[in-house]
Amino acid sequence: MTPLRGAVYLVGAGPGDPELITLRGLKLLERADVVVHDRLIARELLRRVRSDATVIDVGKSRGVQRLSQEEINRLLVDHARRGHCVVRLKGGDPFVFGRGFEELTACREAGVDCMVIPGVSSAVAAPLAAGIPVTLRGVARSFAVLTTETADNEETAIDGSTLQGLDTLVFLMGRHRLRQVARDLMAAGRDPHTPVACIERATTPHQRVVTGTLADIAEAADRAGLCAPMVAVVGEVAALTHSAPPSALDDEYGSNSPLNHQISPSPLAGKRILITRPRSTARELARRLSEAGATPIVCPMIRIVYPGRNEALDRAIRELHEYCWVVFGSVHGVRAFWRRLAVLGLDARRLGGCKIAAIGPATCRELRRHGVTPDAAPEPGAVEELVNAIIDQGGSDIGRVLFPCSNIARTTLPEALRAAGATVDALIAYSTVNAALSEDALGRIRRGVDSVIFCSPSAVRRFVELRLNAGEALVVCIGSTTADAARDAGLGVDAVAAEHSNEGLIAALSRCFLVEASA
Fold first, then answer.
1. Cα separation of 403 and 333, whole Å?
2. pLDDT for 248 beyond 80
3. Which segments of the chain belong to CATH 3.40.1010.10?
4. Bridge partners, residue 509, by sequence
5. Are 114 and 104 in contact (CB under 8 A)?
């Protein structure tokens, strides 16, 4: 019999955002038998682990250590010798102050196969998340990565004299010794006015950036209550963050300073955006916000419930030949309708004798995914436009109209159609109910965000019921109906998306932040 042969994979989990793990690392994580992880990895990554896998937390924090490094090494070796696929999931990159090489050496000495999967290091990802390039033509042509934490009994002071020729210094694990590091660098000859940026929990929804100079950064970090994990960037490039101190280059070069000629980062870069819509419709918006440099926080105020049985809608679907129009008012209405088609063993051909109306671009897109192009596609709230479109295509005798809607749908549209002579069956296809929020989710909101997005009056009502406060956050709504609900609830509305789409929301957000930055 061939003995089982396991292996250990040292996988870099990235700087905090779960989407910044490499594709290779994610594939190994999903097939691992055993996962041994650090404290600072994104917890969402553990959801990708097999349900029957063993997950072991060996994370360390200042003053707290579950297992010694030697015990971790033995753990990896023991599981691999049992034939297991072992993933050692480490924050950032395994070899950047991660003690990964020690684990690799321990495995090799024990005769265990061990491979290293590189990760995105916070040394470059954290500055990038704050809009800071660690190198910049004409400003910084070199950078060094340092840690203020060292092995026991080693000298911890930073030798600033050896760093004088380097343009940018990036310090990892530096919150505890930030004041001492600044003193050491100034004592070694660094200008006290050198810009410094401290990035807390980079690339996560909790990211914060505090700026200052070597002379005052420790006080600024203390005032802001900045905590570990934190990355500190020292050098002229740190002046590229918002509200950073004036650069010494400005004094030397004036308007010709290289820092004055860089392309500005996205107005959404580093902004924490609270999305209150249901998760099913929030994913695409969250993805686009991430691509624009923002940190989306998906925290639904409401959720959509599709009933397991719906006799009234099923009956209407069987009798679709009696309807002239089917009007879809939302993405959820389309999804609910197609669920019932599937239950009845039917498909889009059932709609062959009906004309279709879709309110809003998102509803149109959802219909097209099912191979249906609407005959009328008015903007949300344009009731008169919809009624006129229906009359234009069918004459004054509108006939019978099916309107699959939610349990809290407004009666404006059905009443307008009835006033025009239609027979309207407004049937509940799905329910909009309050979402249950955990204390952790509520805490994230209460700690503050830069903007709140509302896409429905029901989300506004739930937000207020939970006694949440937008504070100084910009409030952006999709549609006048939602904006009116926000104002009625006492919320200041900073912008209403001109287009009822993700693109419209992002454009409105960008304009708001640009105006705020120029104020």
1. 9
2. no
3. 7-120
4. none
5. yes
Which DSSP letter does residue 247 get?
P
Which residues make up the CATH 3.40.50.10090 domain(s) of the chain? 272-301+437-518, 305-434
38 is catalytic: yes
pLDDT for the residue 61: 65
Q: What is the DSSP string of 92-103?
A: B-TTSSS-HHHH
The label of the residue with tokens 């159609």 reads 417
Catalytic entry in 17, 33, 38, 425:
38
pLDDT tens for 278-320 read: 988 898 898 888 878 788 888 999 999 999 999 999 999 999 9
Q: Which amino acid is at 169?
A: L
In this predicted structure, the answer to whether residue 76 has a pLDDT above a threshold of 60 is yes
Tell me which residue of 231, 203, 201 sits closest to 217, measured CA to CA.
Answer: 231
CATH number among 3.40.50.720, 3.40.50.11270, 3.30.470.20, 3.40.50.10090, domain 272-301+437-518: 3.40.50.10090
Band of residue 465 on the pLDDT scale cut at 50, 70, 90: very high
**Which part of the chain is CATH 3.30.950.10?**
124-261
Please provide the DSSP assignment of 119-171 as one string.
---HHHHHHHHTT--SSBTTTBS-EEEEES--STTS-----GGGGTT-SEEEE
CA angle 291, 292, 297 (to 5 degrees): 80
* Domain 7-120: top CATH class: alpha beta
SS (H, E, C) 322-390: HCCEEEECCHHHHHHHHHHHHHCCCCHHHHCCCEEEECCHHHHHHHHHCCCCCCECCCCCCHHHHHHHH
Q: What is the mean pLDDT of residues 391-397?
A: 76
Q: Which of 60, 167, 250, 314 is catalytic?
A: 60
For the whole model, what pTM was predicted?
Answer: 0.60
Band the pLDDT of 390: cuts 50, 70, 90.
confident
Residue tagged active-site, from 33, 90, 93, 173: 173
Q: Are 368 and 389 in contact (CB under 8 A)?
A: no
User: What CA–CA distance (Å, rounded) separates 107 from 74?
Assistant: 9
Query: What separation in angstroms does the CA of 45 have from each of 21, 49, 67, 354, 457?
Result: 9, 7, 22, 46, 33
**CATH class for the region spanning 124-261:** alpha beta
Please determine, looking at this structure, whether the domain spanning 305-434 carries the CATH number 3.40.50.10090: yes
Q: Identify whether 229 is preceded by a cis peptide bond (ω within 30 of 0).
A: yes
Query: At 3, is the pLDDT very low, low, confident or very high (cuts 50, 70, 90)?
Result: very low
